[in-house]
Amino acid sequence: xxxxxxxxxFEDGVTRVIQCEDDEKVTDAxxxxxxxxxxxxxxxxxxxxxxxxxxxxxxxEFYMDESMSDEEADQGYALTCQMIPESDCVVRVxxxxxxxxxxxxxxxxxxxxxxxxxxxxxxxxxxLARPINFLPGxxxxxxxxxxxxxxxxxFSSAPGAQEASFLIRNLPGGLMSTYLDERAQPGDxxxxxxxxxxxxLRPIERAQVWLAGGTxxxxxxxxxxxxxxxxxxxPIILYYAVTRAADLVELGRVNELAEQIGAVTVITIxxxxxxxxxxxxxxxxxxxxxxxxxxxCDVYLCGPPPMVDAVRNHFGKLGVEPANFYYEKFNxxxxxxxxx
Length: 340
What we know:
oxidoreductase; 2Fe2S_fd_BS; Rossmann fold; dioxygenase; alpha/beta; Ring-hydroxylating dioxygenase ferredoxin reductase family protein
């Protein structure tokens, strides 16, 4: 029997992934898996279950004009009580996960290895008790062994892999940094809660401009893994900006994936004035009008808040507004991710 994977993205950033059987409606599949999607009538009449389908093919059965207009249906809206998937789908639900009586899932894991990639970053590899189905770009809350606390990190590994990897910035005195630097041992028990976040790769339907600041490269590694698996019809420009050459961690992996995919241009930038490099400064010194393809492009950015603000201002100075601008901010205080 055919089964499709449906990612339900709730408005509070939580994602739950369900399986929808052949000829099964999304609302029924969600209820079967103990997720109460908004619903009143279940007959395509009230419109309570109207969601936006960001990705995937599906069939809509009966619905009344009062519940959803044909124009909304053409835009990608669907009544989940009448939606029968014909492929894997990503569905944006206009309600919080708590309202739908669900929550992020917690998966046990154990540390496989900690790699000191540079003075400023660690690589953490974790074997999960079971794979986490996430959208490339999303994050989980990782517990810090030996403490009751957690920190939020984007996956740098491919979605659905049992071995998960993360790029983690080395923050002197930071809770996770101290653990990784001083106490981490293979076999240490950790938990991963998620996935979460609105920063994830949408269907690639136009030119792409990806901007990574430091360990903000992590979600792009996950995205590249998926693109390498699924193929690419539009070009990607990846700007990877760090302070020093030693901070260009995982560059070999980036270049290998870029070569495998094709149509991916990787551009590195160093900020330190005493470094020798082809491109110096910040991404805003190098992103051009041509890169933005006259606005017919999607921009993804993962980096510290000043980088996000600077890029926004740069677009204004260039007089070009990209079709879509997705970003995730991370703070040096180890605060949880903020996505938009």
